[in-house]
Amino acid sequence: MKNNFQQWQSDFERVPPELEDRVLQQARTFTAFGKVVEVFVPNALGAVALMIGGEAPDRPVQNGPGAPFEEDIPLWRIPPGRY
Questions:
Q1: What is the pLDDT of residue 10?
Q2: Three-state SS at 78
Q3: What range does the domain containing 28 cover?
Q4: What is the number of other CB atoms lying within 10 angstroms of the CB of residue 43?
Q5: What's the pTM value of the predicted model, to 2 decimals?
Q6: pLDDT digits over 56-65, tens only?
Q7: How far is it, in rounded angstroms, from Cα 83 to Cα 76?
Q8: Most buried by CB count within 10 Å: which residue of 42, 48, 69, 82?
Q9: Which residues contact 75 (CB under 8 A, 6 or more apart)?
Q10: In this structure, is residue 48 part of a structural domain?
């Protein structure tokens, strides 16, 4: 004899494959759109700000490709190709 919760669980486990495929496709689409937004929107907004008269940041990026390393950084913490 099943109780109500077991019956509800068995009802919810029977999802049509078309519905499952449609939900997975939408999830993949939203994931791809989120990745595109995460990569391109900040740079696009920065470019628009510069085009309308904004200023580029004057301080250098810390630990960027051309930044010198301090002597107290252990060798194992330095990224490959930077020593």
A1: 77
A2: coil
A3: 14-52
A4: 9
A5: 0.44
A6: 666 555 655 5
A7: 10
A8: 69
A9: 83
A10: yes
